[in-house]
Design brief:
This protein is mainly α. It is 38% helix and 9% strand. A two-stranded antiparallel sheet has the order 1-2.
Length: 129
């Protein structure tokens, strides 16, 4: 079971459940992957609401490593995600929220809109949705 107070979220992929967490080591790897950008520059990059597939892959790998998973044993490029890519992006946005002190509620806790969809939350406090 994940502990959101430690910055953990669950990812359902390939028929398995994984814990994602952006530990200090995982964040340092992200900084290195983005050419030495500091963590605040990365937070700004991810809060703009636009996430490239390379960003998603970098965040996924860092989150899996931080969650204690051996990413070398996983074929991340072909992994299928519950909810497809939209499900992965929602999970990564949730990971960023719990890591950087956003809402303590999961996307499943968000109020539904009248059309039956769910209200999307920005990845960071003050971020655009």
């Amino acid at each position: 079971m994940v502990n959101r107070h430690r910055g953990e979220v669950s990812l359902h992929a390939g028929g398995e459940t994984y814990t994602l967490c952006l530990t200090l080591g995982a964040l340092a790897e992200l900084e290195a992957a983005y050419g030495g950008d500091d963590i605040l520059a990365l937070a700004d990059r991810f809060s703009c609401g636009q996430l490239s597939s390379a960003d998603a892959l970098n965040l996924l790998e860092a989150g899996l490593k931080g969650g204690g998973h051996d990413t070398a044993a996983l074929d991340l490029e072909t992994l299928s995600f519950e909810g497809g890519m939209a499900g992965l992006i929602r999970t990564l946005a949730d990971l960023l929220r719990v890591t950087f002190g956003g809402s303590d509620h999961s996307p499943a806790d968000a109020q539904g809109d009248p059309s039956g969809g769910t209200k999307e939350l920005p990845p960071f406090p003050g971020g655009r949705s």
